[in-house]
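pinging the channel bc i need a second pair of eyes. not urgent but kinda urgent?? the chain im working w is below, pasted from the shared doc
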Amino acid sequence: MLKIEHLTKKYDQKKAVDDLSLHIQPGEIYGFIGHNGAGKTTTIKACTGILQFDEGEIYIDGLSVKENPLACKRQIAYIPDNPDLYEYMTGIQYLNFIADIFSMGTERNERIHRYADAFELTKDLAQPISAYSHGMKQKLAVIAAWIHEPKLIIMDEPFVGLDPVASHLLKQMMREVCNHGGAIFFSTHVLEVAEKLCDKVAIIKEGRLIQSGTMEDVKGDTSLESVFLELEGEGC
């Protein structure tokens, strides 16, 4: 579903991501773990086509992000760590705008109201997004990501700002996507979240992949004890 091959991204002479390779299969929730500044967001933005990269290739369902950017973007949804929404719009205007981008028909109405009801946001959809709290904006971004039923959902620290009920619902929705053949790739620095939720994880440090596999395999690697201690020190 998502194949990253020898990805390298430089800022001046510094390598933010250094020769990174990962393969996320259909049906997998794949956690991308690392401390703040490790290169997670840079990798994610390269996968979504937001950032150009210096070396390597990224494929989404067999299509090159470089050569087929629009075709790749039709198959994915992206939720950044701090959603940048059009705040002059109301919630429902924004969701319909996203639905229009993906050429959705009347099915949009059922999906919008189903997810808005689940996140208890329905009564707020008529309000301007500028009046939303951070948590409400995060919920709106999640709904916008889900309504066109993408094959691959990429998220950067998606649980930040969500209350426990909304976080639990999002985890259920992530599993449902994978149960229907989709895939999830999301970043976190919270080990507990990855341990409970992910089928596989990758650990990145200073731009380099240092381990990947199931959580059991990764946590069983004694050479990573110092890395886990670092992460736990960031509030895991």
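so Residues 89 and 128 are 5 Å apart (CA to CA). and The chain has nine helices and ten strands. — does that match what u expected or am i reading it wrong
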